[in-house]
RNA sequence: GCGCCUGUAGCUCAGGGGAUAGAGCAGUGGACUUCUAAUCCACUGGCCGGGGGUUCGAAUCCUCCCAGGCGCGCCA
């Protein structure tokens, strides 16, 4: 749409004595199609010109009466607005041409060229099953990495596995006390999880267990063989389980650098901080006092000498800058860790690192049950693998019922089931908490991925019946698309590139997800009002081009969210 | 106690200075001999948490209050 706004901007700028970009910025979309396609509000001019906005709009309307551009055909005042009407035959032709010529690249941009963006996402904790809680980071991080890549950025996805920390001390204690090799072999992750939950249950009655766990973690940090052997075993078994989930979701990381990856950098990191003179001893621990900045102290080393999460994140940030020379580092991590990242960035700043502010926390809300927060420790959680499987199963059932002759039911069921789970997470603003509700996850009607996929599949079906996958372009196609549903659809397609760019700029995949719902809805309205396979050849060909363009946008858009678009379902 | 986030229709949420606040779900009624009814159409449903303020204009920005959530040195 930017393209067309600029043309109007050039026509309007000299009349209102504003720069073209400023005019473009002011242009907005009228609430109803009958009011035109782009509107220039005259309020800001009113004060300067000492006239009412309506009078200004009227005067501008007179100046432009009889005028037109390549893409707009008239300008008419209405109240305090000057409304511009697009020349739909020309505009539609242009949009369809752009979409179809762009193909898989339609919507892409090169504004991010030269950027290297490290994205820290997913990051499940070893020894715990991959819970639904980690799905948010996983799908949001993955979508962001796809979206940013579409803007020309080079993205490096890092799975910052929680493979270090005192929980390993707990696991070792639990395993040594209650562990059973046979059970571990049978169902490693669930068994480890059982031990994890049991540890916390027993520790409530016997606080000495916690102390013992701290000791074991200390031994692990020192590299004692027994501790390391357990750690390696737990880590390997967990990772094998996670890989299955990532395979199912089609996610590949550039690196699986977990927290343990930075172990041998911790001493240097602490030394670096001490050399800069910003660290101090306090109650036996090593901290950076941030009181001046309104933040609680950042602790780098506990009194028992063990390091903390923050220490490892600092080491990781230094390592990533050194290794990848990123222009931005995104941390797709829950909002409950906001303070932690504020502290991290502040410490990096105090270390004199100019790139500190390029470390950006991309927070998201909690997933909660109706009864309250999820608690891994109490065993109150839902396994991601279960959610995915149930969604796929339900999709399969529905396909069996609605489309029993479908050839690849399994891949369609996977696309729909996985899409539902992903979309449920991506379509709402990430900062908001999500209430986990099976009914909602397993609902395929309304504002869901299935709604978008269904529109896509219908288009594929029409094109199959027409016997051509890629209809041939012909000049003047846009001139045949005069129905309100057709115009609305074309206009919506035009917004795709800027929606991606908005999503990228604000790290909000939900902008794109919502937009795709709009596209699908506009298509469905069109579908019900405008038959494609009609006798009039030019109309038929024009509509085939239109739906091919819609299919392109739906497919590209879903692709950026990590969601598949099956040809049938 | 302090800090951050959230509050919009019965429920879940869009909209984040601009024209009459929109969807989905749920409810009611309609549309499949016609390109897939996982769809579409219509109706019902609102002190945009509350009070002040800024502005030509506030659901949107500021401020105070209320409610909920999340944090606040030895977890991550």
The domain tally reads 3
Instruction: Tell me the number of strands.
Output: 13
Mean pLDDT: 93
CATH homology group of the largest domain: HUPs
- Low-pLDDT runs: none
Portion of residues in beta strands equals: 5-15%
Report the top-level CATH class of the largest domain.
Alpha Beta
Overall, the morphology is globular
**Contiguous helical run count:** 22
CATH topology of the largest domain: Rossmann fold
The Rg value, from CA coordinates, equals 28 Å
Strand order of the largest sheet: 5-4-9-10
Query: What is the name of the CATH architecture of the largest domain?
Result: 3-Layer(aba) Sandwich
The main sheet comes to:
4 strands, parallel
Structural class: alpha/beta
The first-to-last residue Cα distance is: 32 Å
Helix percent reads 55-70%
Structure description:
There is one protein chain. The chain has 569 residues and is α/β, with parallel strands linked by helices. It has three domains: 2-86, Arginyl tRNA synthetase N-terminal domain (Gyrase A, domain 2), CATH 3.30.1360.70; 121-373, HUPs (Rossmann fold, 3-Layer(aba) Sandwich), CATH 3.40.50.620; 384-560, Isoleucyl-tRNA Synthetase, Domain 1. The strands form four sheets. It has a four-stranded parallel beta sheet with strand order 5-4-9-10, with helices on both faces. Strands 1-3-2 form a three-stranded antiparallel beta sheet. The model has no long low-confidence stretch (mean pLDDT 93). It has 22 helices and 13 strands. The longest helix has 25 residues, at 225-249. It is globular, with a radius of gyration of 28 Å.
């Amino acid at each position: 749409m930017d393209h067309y706004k600029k043309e109007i901007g050039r026509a309007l700028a000299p009349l209102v004595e504003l720069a073209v970009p400023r005019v473009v910025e002011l242009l907005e979309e009228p609430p109803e199609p009958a009011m035109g396609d782009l509107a220039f509000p005259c309020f800001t001019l009113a004060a300067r010109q000492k006239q009412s906005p309506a009078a200004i709009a009227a005067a501008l309307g007179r100046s432009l009466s009889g005028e037109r551009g390549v893409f707009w055909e008239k300008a008419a005042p209405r109240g305090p607005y000057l409304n511009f009407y697009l020349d739909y035959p020309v505009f539609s032709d242009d949009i369809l041409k752009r979409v179809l010529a762009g193909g898989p690249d339609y919507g892409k941009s090169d504004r991010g060229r030269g950027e290297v963006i490290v994205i820290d996402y997913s990051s499940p904790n070893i020894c715990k099953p991959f819970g639904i809680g980690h799905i948010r980071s996983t799908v949001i991080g993955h979508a962001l990495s796809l979206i940013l890549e579409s803007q020309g950025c080079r993205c490096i996805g890092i799975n910052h596995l929680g493979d270090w920390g005192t929980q390993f001390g707990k696991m070792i204690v639990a395993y040594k006390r209650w562990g059973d090799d046979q059970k571990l072999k049978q169902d490693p992750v669930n068994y480890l999880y059982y031990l994890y939950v049991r540890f916390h249950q027993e520790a409530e009655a016997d606080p000495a267990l916690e102390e013992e766990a701290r000791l074991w973690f200390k031994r692990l940090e020192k590299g004692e063989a027994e501790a390391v052997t357990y750690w390696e075993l737990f880590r390997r078994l967990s990772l094998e389980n996670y890989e299955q989930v990532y395979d199912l979701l089609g996610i590949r990381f550039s690196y699986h650098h977990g927290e343990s990856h930075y172990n041998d950098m911790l001493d240097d990191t602490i030394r670096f901080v001490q050399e800069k003179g910003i660290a101090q001893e306090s109650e036996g621990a090593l901290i950076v006092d941030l009181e001046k900045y309104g933040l609680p102290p950042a602790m780098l080393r506990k009194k028992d000498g063990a390091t903390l999460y923050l220490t490892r994140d600092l080491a990781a940030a230094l390592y990533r800058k050194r290794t990848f020379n990123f222009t931005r580092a995104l941390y797709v991590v829950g909002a409950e860790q906001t303070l932690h990242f504020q502290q991290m960035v502040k410490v990096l700043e105090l270390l004199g690192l100019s790139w500190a502010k390029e470390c950006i926390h991309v927070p998201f809300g909690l997933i909660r049950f109706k009864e309250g927060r999820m608690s891994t420790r109490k065993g109150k959680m839902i396994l991601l693998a279960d959610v995915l499987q149930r969604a796929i199963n339900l999709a399969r059932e529905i396909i069996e019922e609605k489309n029993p002759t479908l050839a690849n039911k399994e891949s369609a069921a996977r696309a729909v089931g996985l899409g539902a789970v992903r979309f449920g997470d991506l379509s709402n603003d990430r900062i908001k908490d999500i209430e986990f509700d099976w009914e909602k996850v397993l609902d395929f009607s309304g504002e869901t991925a299935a709604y978008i996929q269904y529109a896509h599949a219908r288009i594929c079906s029409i094109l199959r019946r027409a016997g051509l996958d890629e209809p041939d372009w012909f000049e003047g196609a846009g001139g045949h698309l005069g129905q309100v549903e057709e115009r609305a659809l074309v206009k919506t397609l035009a917004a795709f590139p800027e929606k991606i760019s908005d999503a990228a700029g604000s790290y909000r995949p939900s902008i794109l997800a919502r937009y795709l719902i709009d596209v699908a809805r506009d298509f469905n309205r069109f579908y019900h009002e405008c038959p494609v396979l009609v006798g009039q050849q030019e109309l038929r060909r024009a509509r085939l081009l239109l739906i091919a363009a819609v299919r392109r946008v739906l497919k590209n858009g879903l692709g950026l969210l990590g969601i598949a678009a099956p040809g049938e379902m």
